[in-house]
Specification:
Layout (H helix, E strand, L loop, with lengths): L1 H15 L2 H5 L17 H14 L31 E3 H4 L1 E4 L6 E9 L12 E8 L8 E9 L6 E6 L7 E8 L2 E5 L3 E4 L17 E6 L10 H9 L4 E4 L16 H4 L15 H11 L3 H7 L4 E3 L12 E2 L2 E4 L2 E2 L8 H15 L15 E5 L3 E5 L18 H4 L10 H16 L4 E5 L22 H13 L5 E5 L5 E5 L20 E4 L15 H14 L3 E5 L4 E7 L3 E9 L9 E10 L18 E2 L9
Parallel strand pairs: 10-11, 11-12, 17-18, 18-19, 19-21
Antiparallel strand pairs: 1-3, 2-3, 3-6, 4-5, 4-7, 7-8, 7-9, 10-23, 13-14, 14-15, 16-17, 20-21, 20-22, 22-26, 23-24, 24-25
Bound molecules: 2-acetamido-2-deoxy-beta-D-glucopyranose (7 copies).
Protein name: Alkaline phosphatase
Organism: Pleurotus eryngii (Boletus of the steppes)
InterPro entries: Metallo-depent_PP-like (IPR029052), PhoD-like_MPP (IPR018946), PhoD-like_sf (IPR038607), PhoD_N (IPR032093), Phospholipid_Metab_Enz (IPR052900)
Length: about 625
């Protein structure tokens, strides 16, 4: 008996190798080609083998409360995996992301059920997945497989489902390999059309809807915006432009407990995010919001930003940074570099995002060719290679805003963006949608500029505008978040009212849709009422030539409905985020016609339900 067990164990080892670990992309987090920063699955596999070898000694009198199910387990399925049960946490939370034409990432978390205080951490959990076009998964299974997860990656599972048909809706499910009856709920996702699909055939000939979000803050409100997008729109893709989670930092450090506990009774767990544990805890907690769960099973997500902390740039945040003499410590006691690595690692574990380039460590900037209808180009204007930003104390940034060599993206990302835009035009894609974090258009707040947005990197902004003009690149649409307010603008060189006419839009080179926050506090102040907010909006649309609509009172999101002829943007305002609900209204809608490179006049059809339109306020006296 004894030797038979050894033989079984070794045979099984040869069969398994590391492929079950390697199938889980979370082990590549954050950098697959960096031995310091990704997991060595051979070592993890060896750890399991050693543990299994422990089973080859007589366990008759051995008791170990940490492994309550191990010795009694039935290992006939797999000698090395845990079969003590899996908890697909958060009612089977799962999500999908970064769809291509024949593949998509599927994600879940499979926590081992534990009778004791600590889950069994020494043997892997084996999770099976399958994907099919049939809503009950009873039809043909297109792809299926098994993958391991362990505590090393917080029991997250991220697999790529391949061999799929382009532009197709799919259904998928995870289950426990050792007990298929334990299964997650069935989720939905889809693939993109292949790059050469004619524009009018994309999405089966129906217009394609993108729902766009930014800035969720758990303690500020319920994430109703996600729920409205999932339940009340036909969103095909969910785009998040940053601040999917927020680590409290200077402004709501635990030394200020009341700010973490809003009147709505939602409090963030843990401290200011600094270690991998902190970032995992934060992501985990945000994912308990019902509306977010609903939006994650409604379709694939394309996300942006690695969510390090407030006012992040390449070597620091508002309250921590690297310096020539070593690191400086944030209030939570972490060195910035470690903090950034921890944030990026947790992000790649928890988010259904692809690792774009194993040799380019922080790269998440990437392009999605959605048939010949759209190129969706996602940038990283936060962590990748951004020169120093406004950190609240370093007011000198105001005087650096015009420096020619200041970069927001880093030279390689900037060159890649230009190449991608040029190629997009060359391949005949109709629309070029650029998703990025921060407001692009100049916003003059009475002589004050937010230098944490593109207003702090003016030469870099001009290079992009020059590339659009010089390359005759039309139909560019910039998407932005970060600001906690709505700003809709024609794209033009700042202060240039010679080539650009703010009334007719003539001379504009594209448009920008900058959306408000899911829950983060209004840019006009938390206690500002609607009439005061609209007064401020009226002043701003009057003072800023390119800005056509401003709205700063409501929290929400927007959708873009894209077809060959036009893009329609609908801005959704949430009625009340202090309780979970799906009540919302459209505060304004805008149309951009193919080839026009400006907002269609009259802007918003001349009719809005909140905020202020430039066309309805008297022009400013010069
Ligand atoms: C599963 O996980 C959820 C969320 O963490 C928890 O509330 C629940 O008690 C767990 N169930 C079991 C059986 O461990
Ligand atoms: C960041 O570094 C600078 C020196 O470059 C230092 O003056 C500043 O105090 C640091 N800030 C924080 C929050 O550590
Ligand atoms: C940018 O140029 C200024 C002088 O105009 C110089 O002081 C600074 O070091 C340069 N920065 C970089 C990152 O090259
Ligand atoms: C635009 O004009 C305003 C007001 O004169 C000025 O403060 C700002 O610096 C100008 N912007 C640029 C990019 O030159
Ligand atoms: C809005 O707030 C302003 C400033 O606090 C106040 O003067 C005004 O009366 C308020 N308006 C309404 C409708 O409550
Ligand atoms: C939001 O709902 C809460 C709870 O029902 C209510 O107390 C509050 O007045 C509502 N706020 C608004 C702006 O309607
Ligand atoms: C969304 O749908 C729900 C019903 O599922 C409805 O109660 C709610 O009013 C709708 N919200 C909007 C903004 O249409």
């Amino acid at each position: 008996m004894f030797s038979a067990f050894v033989t079984l164990a070794l045979v099984a080892t040869n069969v398994y190798g590391t492929q079950h670990l390697d199938r889980n992309l979370a082990y590549r987090s954050p950098f697959s080609n960096d031995p310091q920063a990704s997991h060595n699955t051979k070592n993890i596999q060896a750890r399991h083998i050693q543990h299994a070898r422990r089973q080859t000694v007589d366990a008759g009198s051995f008791t170990d409360e940490h492994y309550p199910t191990f010795y009694g387990g039935d290992f006939s399925n797999s000698p090395f995996v845990r079969n003590g049960g899996i908890n697909f946490t958060h009612s089977g939370l799962q999500c999908t992301g970064d769809p291509f034409d024949t593949s998509v990432l599927l994600w879940t978390r499979a926590l081992p059920i534990s009778e004791g205080p600590t889950p069994d951490e020494s043997v892997p959990v084996c999770v099976a997945f399958k994907i099919s076009r049939s809503p009950t998964l009873s039809g043909r299974i297109i792809d299926s497989g098994e993958a391991f997860t362990t505590f090393d990656v917080d029991f997250t599972v991220k697999v790529e489902a391949t061999g799929l048909e382009p532009d197709t809706k799919y259904f998928f499910q995870f289950s426990d390999c050792t007990n298929p009856k334990t299964a997650s709920p069935i989720g939905t996702t889809r693939t993109l059309p292949s790059p050469n699909t004619p524009a009018h055939l994309v999405n089966g000939g129906k217009s394609l809807t993108l729902a766009v979000f930014s800035c969720s803050r758990y303690q500020n409100g319920f994430f109703n915006a996600y729920g409205v997008a999932a339940h009340n729109t036909t969103a095909d893709l969910f785009i998040h432009l940053g601040d999917y989670v927020r680590g409290p930092s200077v402004v709501d450090h635990p030394s200020l407990p009341q700010s973490r506990f809003a009147a709505i009774g939602r409090m963030v767990l843990g401290r200011e995010t600094a270690t991998i544990h902190d970032y995992r805890l934060r992501l985990n907690q945000y994912r308990t919001d019902v509306s977010l769960v609903d939006a994650h099973v409604a379709g694939p997500w394309i996300t942006d930003d690695h969510e390090v902390s407030d006012q992040a740039w390449k070597a620091g945040t508002a309250d921590s940074n690297d310096t020539a003499i070593g690191c400086s410590f944030s209030p939570s006691g972490a060195c910035f570099t470690d903090r950034k690595l921890a944030a990026v690692r947790a992000y790649h574990e928890w988010m259904p995002i692809r690792q774009v380039d194993p040799n380019n460590q922080l790269r998440i900037w990437r392009n999605f060719q959605i048939g010949k209808l759209v190129d969706l180009t996602m940038l990283d204007t936060r962590q990748y290679n951004r020169d120093i930003t406004d950190l609240y104390y370093n007011t000198v940034i105001n005087s650096l805003a015009d420096e020619k060599n200041r970069s927001l993206m880093g030279a390689d990302q900037e060159q890649w963006l230009f190449k991608t835009l040029t190629e997009s035009k060359k391949r005949g894609a109709i629309w070029r949608i650029i998703g990025q974090q921060i407001v692009f258009t100049q916003l003059n707040f009475g002589g004050f500029f937010n230098v944490d947005s593109w207003d702090g990197y003016r030469a870099n902004r001009n290079r992009i505008l020059d590339h659009l003009v010089g390359g005759h690149i039309d139909n560019a649409v910039i998407l932005s978040g970060d600001s906690h307010g709505n700003w809709v603008s024609d794209l033009a060189h700042p202060n240039d009212t010679t080539r650009y006419n703010p009334i007719t839009g003539a001379g504009a080179v594209g448009v920008e849709f900058a959306g408000t926050a899911v829950t983060s506090t209004s840019t006009f102040g938390a206690d500002t009422n609607q009439s005061t907010a609209e007064g401020l909006s009226r002043q701003l649309v009057q003072a800023n030539p390119d800005l056509q609509w401003s709205e700063g009172f409501f929290r929400g999101f927007y959708t873009l409905t894209v077809d060959v002829h036009q893009i329609k943007a609908d801005f959704f305002a949430m009625r009340n985020i202090t309780i979970p609900n799906l009540e919302a209204f459209v505060s304004a809608s805008f149309v951009v016609e193919n080839g026009a490179n400006k907002l269609k006049r009259p802007v918003a059809g001349g009719k809005i339900n909140a905020g202020a339109l430039k066309s309805s306020v008297a022009p400013r006296e010069e």
